[in-house]
Hints:
alpha/beta
Amino acid sequence: MTDYLKSNNIIEEKIHIGDIPAILFRPKEKEALLATIIFYHGWSSSKESQRMRGFILASVGYQVIIPDAIYHGERNPIEYTAENARYFWDVILNTFDESELIIKELIEKYKADPNRIGLAGHSMGGFISSGVFTHNAKAKALVVFNGSCGWKNSNDIFKEEMNITMNEELKVMEDKINLIDPSNNMHLLRDRPILMLHGTNDNVVSVESQRNFYSSIKSLYQDPKKVELIEYPNLNHYLTTNMMEESIAWFYKYL
């Protein structure tokens, strides 16, 4: 089958950063430092499944990297059953830990402009990107598709939906979640550009966590236009063309 994601103006390359396999898109014939977006995929997805979105962002001038998270893609994928959903936060926290290496290598080896690094992610990738953005002051702009900047709130919803009984191991995990949770570190986010895009009928990641986060953080912004929550009526857990268009406009303005 012919690969339709081809362009004379965009280079696509499979790379490894440490042990992390990734796809890198970049515009051809650009010698200067590149505005770079790290795009994180969701639960049960992979870097290959997000190629179209990487290609779209690269086609408007950005360098884009899409890494595989553990238990996904080339990294020992698992069956994404309800039972294995217990690995959800393990994946998020591990990917958060790996982000520093990815950013470092992008700057040192792939001409990423250290002053123009953006973060984006869908679903689980939205959790990851919000955490990485919160704790990396040099990151310039964030777009969260159907994810959550309120980790504790989302975790509480997950526990209720799945009827999870707490134990000591889960308590340790929750302590880590709460420590990194963007909603517990809003002082690190003051006046930094954040765009949240979410369907009102999302039955995987409830929009309520984003509503709560937005309601709490917007008062910290001198410019209220730099933090936005756009809700899509009746939309379930999907990343739409309109969302991609909003993300491009956001990065164009702030990255």
